[in-house]
Amino acid sequence: MFWTAKMLAFALSSFLRMATGFDIGLSTKCVVIPKEMDMCHKIGYSEMRLPNLMGHTSMAEVILKSTTWQHLVHTDCHPHVRTFLCSLFAPICLDTFIHPCRSMCIAVHDSCAPVLACHGHSWPDSLDCDRFPADEDMCLASLAKEHKYLHKVLPRPACQTCPAVEEFFTHKRVLEVFCDNNFAVKVRLSKKRTVLSNQEYNIECRVEFIIQGSLLPYETQNMIQQWLLINENCTERMTQTHRPMVYLLVGNIEEGVILVNQVYRWQRRDSQLTLATQKWRYHKCL
Q1: Are residues 82 and 14 part of one domain?
Q2: Which residues form the domain of 38?
């Protein structure tokens, strides 16, 4: 977590009264971050202030409102999306409130607003970045620049129109599709209900039959998992029942964006897909 000792000395009282709609002068208390707030576990601290910076005064309200954001966090749409949201929903229990900087908000917004839009939601007015303090003030700053230099920059999944699920094909056609793309990932999907009655998916990815390029297998796997979370409408179409289903996702990485172009349903005794994947090792594309 990115908390520093320098953050202990600064209060944002007047700003927070305006931004959150409640008087930060009201008495607050330290409480344990509840188990239902999965997105704010293992973030470097275990206690939060209540009321929080979103104006939620009861733990029931905090849990209800924060769970709507947990899916966005799981998409990993920005390296600091968890830090940003938890600083508001579950602020660290210090002598004063520490607010995220405007730069952090803008960075998270630019990466995550398109994901919200993909799910049919707009970025809420309550998180308008103009409400947050500038970096010159004492606030929780974005480490986007440092992250860029310390970590490999990978292509990002995009919100896209769902490709049709192919169920009737020949192995020759599958080989042609392999030649036109640069990854093919075998995915096992099932779905479950959480204790909060939210839809979640069990996603198992195994990288096979791939033209890897510069990407390692686990990097491709992580990106496909993110694609399935971001394009939840596509994932939902592929998981009509709670019975596990297996698919082959084939696509391209273009200009830093990962796109799935073809989806094949992998039947238990699908000889054409099996034959195509066996022949792929020795196949020469035209």
Answers
A1: yes
A2: 5-149
